Amino acid sequence: MSGRAIEGVIADMAGSSALPRRNGELVFSAPWESRAFGVAVSLCQEGVYEWDDFRSLLIDEIAAHEPEDGEHYYQRWFASLERLLLDREVVTEAELTARYAEFEADVEAEHGHEHEHDHTDERRST
Q1: What is the pLDDT at residue 40?
Q2: Residue 28 burial (10 A CB sphere; 0-12, 13-18, 19+)
Q3: What distance in Å separates the CA atoms of residue 3 and residue 45, rounded to the nearest whole number?
Q4: Contact present, 1 and 52 (Cβ < 8 Å)
Q5: How do the domains of the chain map onto residue ranges?
Q6: Whether 57 contacts 80, CB under 8 Å
Q7: 29: which residues sit within 8 A by CB, 6+ positions away?
Q8: How far apart are CA 66 and CA 46, in angstroms?
Q9: Cα separation, 80 vs 17, whole angstroms
Q10: What is the pLDDT of residue 66?
Q11: In Å, what is the CA distance from 116 to each residue of 110, 113, 120?
């Protein structure tokens, strides 16, 4: 799907799968949310999957976690993307686990210390 075509499909998403917006602009509460959004769009544009396949998983994921106030929308988005990529065998569970470990190490290095709380919930919530 071309860039312009996917933009139209995303703009037309309605109901529970509609993207969070404020004054018509997309709203991201944390940098990982915009990255997850960009990855999903880019992979669709590259032909890895059809947007409707992703959207269907997103709707199911949101429905499985309702009622929510929308605060965790991108956690649902990320879980849907992860599930789709695993189902399509684009990545393996082992590859995801290794990448999450790398991410956690990077976060700890940014903070300058090791600590007890877990940042994995910030990008992976299933």
Answers
A1: 94
A2: middle
A3: 6
A4: no
A5: 3-91
A6: yes
A7: 74
A8: 31
A9: 11
A10: 72
A11: 15, 10, 12
